[in-house]
């Protein structure tokens, strides 16, 4: 007999109170690595909320973007500095130490595009920032916190990829030179050598703009989503050439965000169809379709301990505990086929 459908899904808990759509999420350990991680959320109304996952309440609200949507959040490795990017064309650096919650520096953005910035952490004193540049197809690289311009990355004259849509700075273990992966409006993904200011390789992944991607530098493999009904999985070989490995067809079109869990065992996607989809990263086997939200899921984020957060246009943030990080992911997983919807209790 066929297995009966699993019961409707339930997140572990839900955070309410953003009072507008949630467009950015980021976990961090909190000051001096205090036990339970904190969750940062950025909203359409321009506010950043800092949530305690123990009390399940906002412990602070940061208001620095003039009521304009917060599109990206990132903490620096030392733990008490936060970067927030908003549609007000400002990128703010916040000091979160000892409850200060103050803007200590800002960078002016010159592009109104949807592109989120990226950070490559160096020493505590110096780090690199990639952000959308002045020209619609440009990426600006700055050394921070001095704001010294490193370079502007502009596509070759015959390449017309359109606007950069997502960025990721990284370094290979075998090479200290900084590299940049950029997803573009034409659906391509390009690898830039920042020092040489040149494209090492480019691959066509989608026919629609790349809305979100994530890259596993240890496996030299990435995954991207767009407005299409497919995820693209692509790899980078030792000659720094990108190639599409496979595509995974989805039930409904539209992926707003993609994140690989820190242990590189599973990944999650944020869907325009209000769903969060979970896949096994090595095999791309569909594991779960999480149905809770009543509007577009704009963003997903993983904590170091494996917790998954999803933020939606319905003004709610759902928190899920799926496949504990200590479990043996090489063993057969109790995952449903694409289309079946499950709750956290069904896949733990």
Overall description:
With 348 residues, the chain is mainly beta. It has 3 domains: 27-109, Thrombin, subunit H, CATH 2.40.10.480; 113-249, YVTN repeat-like/Quinoprotein amine dehydrogenase (Methylamine Dehydrogenase, Chain H, 7 Propeller); 252-278 and 287-324, no CATH class. It is 1% helix and 49% strand. The protein contains 1 helix and 28 strands. It has one helix at 344-347, and strands at 13-16, 22-28, 38-43, 47-52, 57-63, 70-75, 81-86, 90-95, 102-108, 118-121, 127-132, 139-144, 148-153, 164-170, 179-184, 188-193, 198-204, 210-216, 221-226, 230-236, 242-249, 255-260, 266-271, 275-280, 286-291, 297-302, 308-312, 316-320. It has a 4-stranded antiparallel β-sheet with strand order 1-28-27-26, with no helix packed on it. A hairpin with a 5-residue loop joins strand 24 (275-280) and strand 25 (286-291). The longest helix is centred in the C-terminal third of the chain and has 4 residues, at 344-347. The protein is globular and about 50 Å long. Residues 329-348 have low confidence and may be disordered.
